[in-house]
What does this fold into?
Amino acid sequence: MDSGSSDGHTVHEAGMNPGEATPRLPAILVVSGDDRLRRAVVDPLNRRYARDYRILDAGAAESGVTAIEDLHASGGDLALVLSDDASPAHGHENVFAAARRRFPNVRRGLVIEWGSWANRDTTAAVLELISLVQIDYYVVRPVDRADESFHRAITDFLHEWEFSSGQRRRGFTVIGDQAQPRTHELHTLMERGGIHAEHLDPGSPEAMALLADAGIDYDAVPLVRTADGAVLIDPDDAALVRSYGLDTSLPEGVVDVAIVGAGPAGLAAAVYAASEGLDTVVLEAGSIGGQAGSSSLIRNYLGFSRGVSGTELAQRAYQQAWTFGARFAHTRRVVGMAVSDGSFELQVDGDERMRARSVVLASGVSYRRLAAPGLRPYVGASVFYGASSVEARAQAGRAVLVVGGGNSAGQAALHLARYARSVSLVVRGPSLAESMSRYLIDQLDAAGVGLITGARVVDAGAHDADRLDHVILERSESGERLELPADAVFITIGAHPHTEWLAPEVLRDKWGSVITGAEVLTEGGRRAWLGAEGAPTQFESSVPGFYAVGDVRRGSVKRVASAVGEGSVVISAVHAHLGAHVGG
It folds into this structure.
């Protein structure tokens, strides 16, 4: 394909002959004003990726923007933009900004020369473009034919694009009304598990044809068509995860350690416990990753220079624990507990039980429902508790509010800004400075996310339809109320632990957080510690052998890295307990 551009340059599609039909493939666009440097990027891309991607190249920023506009107008898709030119085109936006405006899921890399990171101007340019959310990272121009460092960067970009755009499908389809919360729940459970599913409205021709082939009538409940062609009618969570190969069964014998919760703390505990030879079972009621698993991008986690999505981090940790031999009981909620003879009996929903010699509680927290009656009818359909990155793509063209001022709220707002018409944060305080990382505040400002301070949501409703279209805010100081358009609301405040099922011997504070370590004695006195002697270890509760790590523990630092650290460290105490009380 050759396409003229406003500045006289051309846009060329590598590997295509004049008049040859262009396949409908996602595109990779390379922009550089230097022909030799542009070919140094285009040629290796063409050798490796031309069968699966259209490789386009443009000779200047203006022609790059034109190529983006032409691709959008033709209904194409853009996976990746690589450019060594971040200058404004046509007098306003650069090629990176133009790409994000037309293709919200696109990945963008600034091409630099090897070693140029030592140049202050290059470093300043990279850091500024990242802070302005105009690039995802930099890419070093390849210097030889098989530059695997270059190709690793490219495949990482394409992997991220495939995941965020929903292209990584496994043959699953959800058929259901978007106004039904259960439709969203099924879709979210699969997405959080790494299973991208197509969604079809029940009245669409595709859905009706699929159901006709299966001999099933739609009866106002969501259905899931699995990869092998079976149709599940409003499946429960356990049936759904079993359809894509996950185990929900409980162990028959007594295990060394039961880990309740598969968020960052629980997964870290599973990795260390299993790697050190302990018989380990992890029980998770929802999705692997917990609250962190719903984060669209964790930028400040050690070792991930470009950041990592919560789902990706959780899946890596899950696979790591699994390869060490940890067993997982998916979608199994612990609802009761008893302590007897130095071991623990856990009651699991479905009236099943399992026994363990020690327990690590890593169940995290969930969000309290806001006392705003108008929100209740829309929970799960257009009102979401938590930073659900899975729901972001559905907000295209809508006005969205995010309630909360922490990092999870900031990450959610930044991700939603890719798709939504407008995104605003609503916080009770006067600013974000005390509750959010500085890098996130800067990126939110650059992305045009609005900020409403000194306010809270007190009501909501719909004027002309059955879908949410506005919320009512109340000013903290004056009590003034105002109506604000909103098609969706994401709520990330009021987190609290669900520990009501614990045995009464486990000491908790008035909010339900588990008290551990020396605080057991200072809070509850010597009688609170049920051990024969000494004192509880750092993460040990008032019951010997029962530990709490991560957000469920009182005094924990609410950061992913901190939760991972606690989950890793606690296993040494578990080993010591088993050695002293169970005989190894």
